[in-house]
Amino acid sequence: xxxxxxTGVAMVTPFRKDESIDFTSLGxxxxxxxxNGVNYIVTLGTxxxxxxxxxxxxxxxxxxxxxxxxxRVPLVVGMGGNNTQEIVDKIRKRNFDGISAxxxxxxxYNKPSQKGVYLHxxxxxxxCPVGVIIYNIKSRTxxxxxxxxxxxxxxxxxxxxxxxxxxxxVVQSMQIISxxxxxxxxxxxxxxxxxxxxxxxxxxxxxxxxxxxxAEFTEIIKMALSNNFTKSKEHYYKLFELMEVMFSEGxxxxxxxxxxxxxxxSNQFRLPITPVTRSAYIKLHDIVNKLDN
Length: 293
What we know:
It contains 12 helices and 8 strands. The chain is α/β, with parallel strands linked by helices and 293 residues long.
């Protein structure tokens, strides 16, 4: 499980003005984050705007990722939703060569019971030939996966290898970390909480900021995991203002604004996601200029 410790980057999906996928920019971004030291790449999650992508587009992105990454770092693919059987069917149809794990979000909108959540991950784990990372993000799904449910999934299914914990409940994170099986990973799911969670035992982060600042964010997490929090905090606070403004109007609106300011992608979205406001864009422009000059 060491391959998923440290910094994973939740990749954006660049679009052209006609809203088609900009694979040229995506390829450049993949090489940028790998060359700047990220430990692994995550695609087709929230930051990828996966809910606005068709099945064919998702498969095209996965295939492009596998080819471009070329086994230089592990690839984690988002495969989640609120229809358990549909996810299981997709898993069974997928060739997993080049894919190291899946990230599977808690079912949303349905608001299942904890028993329903457990059985959902049971079906996925039993069907999936690679590791499964649970994604707990109540602010988006409306359902918190309880400590007991996460621990039961971790105990019952060997390929349930970790949880991306974005509940923003530090006490729950501590409960999971203190009781989890030895090889089960707790990964921070919110950049701004990364240092607090690592300080209590989390083993890495799936980062949005690392799209734009992979070397800097990877170093922050590396130092924190080495218990060098003095240096880690020093570097972290250099990015703190950026993260505050970047997430103030939602994700991925903020990170795409930053990447467009850095001339890496176009500031294009598919509805219902929209660009950040002009005032936020100006603030981000000023912050990026200070960081890069």
